[in-house]
Amino acid sequence: MSNSTPNYIKYLLFLIYIMLFTSVSASAADTREFFIHTVHIDGKANIKGDNNHPPEAFPLQKLPDGRSLMLTKPDENGAWKMRAFAFEPSQIIVYEDDNINLHFVGVQGRTHTIHVEGSGIDKKFTLTRGYIETININSAEAGFIEIECYDHEPAMRAEIIILPKIKKNRTTPLLNRFF
Length: 179
Fold this sequence. Notes:
Immunoglobulin-like; five-stranded mixed β-sheet; 2 helices; 10 strands
């Protein structure tokens, strides 16, 4: 950056740099709250089409075994549907040492047998529609946590990625370019 660059722009770039490349002190762990919903996504089609959609052939490809992906064959009017069970969100990213509160919300599907396993946790529970089950993870370890619904395998899965914290006071020649 040239010497003619205004100071406020240099200051702004410095703040952006600090936000991107440093972390809070290890003693100040954050508590992160997440609501994970059990949902199904429905896609509706018709082999004859309608005023809003062209005809769609019924798929002939076999889906994986399990109850997470389901096709309903065309009815007498040609209507068919595809259903997929999922966790929403299906991926969460946090930092090590964070305290994590996972609130599983039973929205769709009568029950879900859920297993949460990885980096410091191994918990199984049954979630019923209309209820919330909370799991607390204190001082999360860097790594992965897998979430799986045994009732809707193989596709109803989610993951938590726990990133290591970036070390403080990291210096780089990049800073010298701005000052």
